[in-house]
Specification:
- This protein is of the alpha/beta class.
- The protein contains 7 helices and 13 strands.
């Protein structure tokens, strides 16, 4: 990462995703890979001023565009992985969480932060996306980060109990209350959004509605797992959170075409070739033994 995230004299912090207000005396904690880019016409969350070419044009080595899945297609692929290819939930969760931690380490290496040990707040939802977040937190700890978990709605299932125990045994703290906006900016270098995945529908309920409202205003970079929480899987949400990073799992979903952050990774190098062919996913070729691929 080459330049420092710039705090302008008017109190506006500008990154390649959007401008945010209210840092006050807080110092930027992460350095950027790319030059900060400004638009004289728009600094809104969906501004395309600093976007690279659309992710819809990302092609695999054969020249075919990577397919962005609808919600129905994503659910069908998931069910085939479980029922036809006999993957277990915990197996896919481990692969997904490791991919998320690996992608984060590539986009935000520990030595790119201004604090010696980068602190990461991992917010976990009640479903499988939250399980991915727990696995991600465990691997981030092994990668040299200092994760903390907020897990307000814990399912009463052995799998999630085990994942929680694994994190606790690695001395990863669990918060009892969600931090205020000021506390979040003061304490954490990065936020991992692992609240809702591609199966989410309907209105966001508490406590997650308040959590997402806070995340809409923080200046700390957000990395979303598979889908930015609160987004429609296909149509996105221009009024919702606007993460700096998106980690698509298995294959990108249609809403990823509306992602305006700096880093888009594909994680989860586990899709059987026959399943990829059936759904015409046209996944990009992974490099060497990498389990993630940067799309943007």
């Amino acid at each position: 990462m080459y330049t420092v995230r710039t705090l302008l004299s008017l109190g506006v912090l500008v990154s390649t995703r959007f401008a945010v207000r209210g840092l006050g005396h807080h110092q930027p904690k992460v350095l950027l890979r790319e030059q900060v880019c400004l638009s004289h016409t728009s600094l809104g969350p969906f501004s395309q001023a600093c976007r690279k070419s659309s992710t819809s044009e990302m092609a695999n080595p054969s020249g075919s565009s990577v397919k962005y899945l609808s919600q129905d297609e994503a659910q069908a692929v998931d069910q085939e992985l479980f029922n036809e290819y006999m993957f277990s939930v915990d197996q896919l969760m481990e692969l997904a969480g490791l991919s998320c931690a690996t992608a984060i380490a590539q986009a935000y290496p520990p030595d790119s932060f201004t604090n010696k040990v980068p602190t990461v707040l991992v917010i976990c939802g009640p479903g499988n996306n939250g399980g991915d977040g727990l696995v991600c937190a465990r691997h981030l700890k092994l990668f040299g980060y200092e994760p903390t978990i907020f897990y307000p709605k814990r399912p009463n299932k052995p799998l999630f109990d085990s994942l929680t125990t694994q994190c606790k045994k690695m001395d990863i703290p669990f918060l009892e209350e969600f931090p205020s906006e000021a506390q979040l900016v003061e304490v954490y270098s990065l936020v991992v959004d692992a609240i809702f995945g591609f199966s989410f529908k309907g209105a966001v309920r508490e406590p997650f509605n308040s959590i997402l409202s806070t995340l809409k205003h923080v200046t700390v970079p957000i990395a979303s797992v598979d889908i930015p929480s609160g987004w429609d899987v296909e149509n996105g949400n221009p009024e919702g959170i606007q993460p700096d990073m998106l980690i698509s799992l298995t294959a990108p979903k249609k809403s990823a075409l509306l992602f305006s952050g700096r880093y888009h990774f594909l994680g989860g190098r586990f899709v059987p070739p026959s399943l990829e062919k059936k759904y015409a996913m046209n996944l990009p070729k992974y490099t060497g033994t990498d389990c993630v691929k940067q799309l943007l």
